[in-house]
């Protein structure tokens, strides 16, 4: 390769893959599908390698295309942020903030934050991906991630977001407990109860930890249902399939309605709430800077005491 390919062609490639096709990318980039197709052909010819698999129904990256995009997408995010910084000022930041968050945070933390944030910063768009695994979200092109403290790399800046204490709650339906009995100790879960377990995307089954008076018990649920879907787990617990042990926020509506009842209350594990994390760098993208400032303003309990009027 004698020279660096046209960066617009590379940007068009990323847009096509993100949109899942030429038509969607053309709408985003306010261009035509044919011009985007020409960009990809020109790029493939210059590099001497096929970057996209094209069928009548889908457009997907080849292995080479996926590797190229994985390496270049973070750089293009930095370029976008740099140009956005030229267009905005401290009070009116512009651009997209890409976040990678676990399901509990997406469902029960972000909704209480984003409405006021959008009112404050109408020029910012949030692009949120829900994942519960512990991959390198920064290396994959996200501006920031949200995880719990034990999963955050030491070289990251971490800022509290949402409630500062959370807990897991054990519960089951009244019909299940009537048939199987009410456990009086976590050890009883191992011998006479059906446990509904959670599987992480990496295949690991989440252990259940109980603690009281310095006694800690760790149980890996080996019941009739293991699933990565919290919706399925909840539905099965409500229907009487077994005992569930998960985030209190997930269970609260069902506990309040009486569909399920709490168990082993003295043994529930509580833990620190989530953190927003991002790498230390001199030029923080303005959407991320605005989001960090906003959640700091909300305070440790995640409830806003501030006005949503535009900052001075």
Entry keywords:
312 residues, alpha/beta, Arc Repressor Mutant, subunit A, D-Maltodextrin-Binding Protein, domain 2, 3 domains, 6-stranded mixed β-sheet, 5-stranded mixed β-sheet, 11 helices, 15 strands, disordered C terminus
Describe the fold and architecture.
The protein has 312 residues and is of the alpha/beta class. The chain has three domains: 65 residues, Arc Repressor Mutant, subunit A, CATH 1.10.10.10; 103 residues, 3-Layer(aba) Sandwich (D-Maltodextrin-Binding Protein, domain 2); 107 residues, D-Maltodextrin-Binding Protein, domain 2 (3-Layer(aba) Sandwich), CATH 3.40.190.290. Strands 7, 8, 11, 12, 13 and 14 form a six-stranded mixed sheet that branches. A hairpin with a 4-residue loop joins strand 1 and strand 2. Helix 1 crosses helix 2, helix 1 crosses helix 3 and helix 2 crosses helix 3. The longest helix is centred in the first third of the chain and has 25 residues. The protein starts with 6 loop residues before the first helix and ends in a 14-residue tail after the last helix. 28% of the residues are buried. The C terminus is likely disordered.
List the helices and strands and how they pair.
Blueprint (H helix, E strand, L loop, with lengths): L6 H13 L2 H8 L3 H15 L4 E3 L4 E3 L1 H25 L7 E7 L1 H6 L2 H10 L3 E7 L13 E4 L8 E5 L4 E8 L1 H7 L8 H4 L2 E4 L9 E5 L2 E5 L5 E3 L2 H10 L3 E5 H10 L3 E3 L6 E3 L2 E5 L6 H13 L14
Parallel strand pairs: 3-4, 3-5, 8-11, 8-12
Antiparallel strand pairs: 1-2, 5-15, 6-15, 7-12, 7-13, 7-14, 9-10
Summarize the structure.
This protein is α/β, with parallel strands linked by helices and 312 residues long.
